[in-house]
Amino acid sequence: MTTGGSWPVRFGFAELVRDLDRPAGWMLIVDGTPQSYVDTEDPLHLDFDYVRLLADVVEVTTDPGTPLTMVHLGGGGCTLPRWVAATHPGSTQVVIEADDLLAEVVRSQFGTTGFRLRVGDARAALEHLQPAASDVVVGDCFVGARVPAHLATVEHVWQVAGVLKPAGTYVVNLADSGSLVFIRQQVATMLAVFEHVVLLGDLRARRLARLGAQVASLERCLHEAREQRVGRGGAALELGVELTPQEIRVIRELDDLDEALVRRRPREHEACGDEPVAV
Q1: The pLDDT value given to residue 59
Q2: Pick from 213, 202, 228, 247: which is nearest to 59 by CA?
Q3: Are the C-beta atoms of residues 140 and 73 closer than 8 Å to each other?
Q4: Residues forming a β-bridge with 164
Q5: What integer pLDDT is reported at residue 183 of this predicted model?
Q6: Sequence-separated (6 or more) residues with CB below 8 Å from residue 227
Q7: Which among 73, 91, 126, 212 could disulfide-bond with 159, CB atoms 3.0 to 4.6 Å apart, if both were Cys?
Q8: What mean pLDDT value characterizes the chain?
């Protein structure tokens, strides 16, 4: 039973706050930063825009309703694994959460029906997963509002590629300031590993000087991804290819993002140290 409350965790202080507008809705906050929203009665309810974007990518790159093999790097309240368990029954999912104390809070408050929740470092966990076996790998790792530096490197992306099936998808949640320096660097890092890279972003969030985005390697359904996000007021761009007038307009609204991205050097582990990446 979900009771709410507050707990000291490995990377700060966690609070679980009830949504007064949805009796079964709960917000997980760590050190003042909202991390997850879980509706304990309706796993299909996705409150955060970026989680809906993650779900969009899963939908357009997999067959509806079929069981999936998925790896989630970063857990929080495990909103997306719960959604996948409901929309793709029988899926095999493992969630890797670095914060052992937070994982215990999530287990006790929300349960783990439909997925396994393991404690560990994302890169270390990838080394023990079966190669070329996953349909989707989701990256959603933050310490507060920052991405750990060792998860923002070419070496890490190659590790992810190693556990994906040939037509698999890597989708990662990113956040940046208005300059978009970090996102530019991350897309260049993806382009160093994957042939197809798509940037999805919410232009409304961009106007708030913070862009939540996903970078995914998509081997199929690119056209559907473009239509879904552009049609709903967002941006869906495949970088390094000929673009439509609509996509060119979106790029201009994102400060000519594509040209800056392809010129940015990939991020290598040796150059970034061990501190979290400031975004």
Answers
A1: 85
A2: 228
A3: yes
A4: 134
A5: 75
A6: 236
A7: 126
A8: 77
Q: What is the mean pLDDT of residues 83-96?
A: 98
| Whole-number Å distance between alpha carbons of 58 and 61 | 5
Q: Which residue has the higher pLDDT, 252 or 179?
A: 179
Print the SS3 string covering 52-75.
Answer: HHHHHHHHHHCCCCCCCEEEEECC
- Is the predicted pLDDT of residue 253 greater than 90, yes or no? no
Facing residues of 6 across strands?
Answer: 15
**Would you say residue 274 has pLDDT above 60?**
no
Distance CA 255, CA 209 (A): 12
DSSP labels for the chain?
Answer: ----EEEEETTEEEEEEE-TTSTTEEEEEETTEEEEEEESS-TT---SHHHHHHHHHHHHHS-TT---EEEEE--TT-HHHHHHHHHSTT-EEEEEES-HHHHHHHHHHH--TTSEEEES-HHHHHTTSPTT-EEEEEE---BTTBB-GGGSSHHHHHHHHHHEEEEEEEEEEEEE-TT-HHHHHHHHHHHTT-S--EEEEEHHHHHTT-EEEEEE--SS-HHHHHHHHHHTTEEEEETTS---HHHHHHHHHTTSHHHHHHHSPPP-GGGT-SSPBP-
pLDDT value for 266 = 53
The answer to pTM > 0.70 is yes
The answer to whether 78 and 115 have CB atoms below 8 angstroms apart is yes
For 103, list phi and psi in degrees, rounded to 5. Answer: -60, -40
Cα 162 to Cα 173: distance, rounded to the nearest angstrom: 19
List C-alpha distances in Å: 16 to 1, 152, 205, 217, 262.
13, 28, 24, 34, 41
∠ CA 78-179-177 to the nearest 5 degrees? Answer: 35
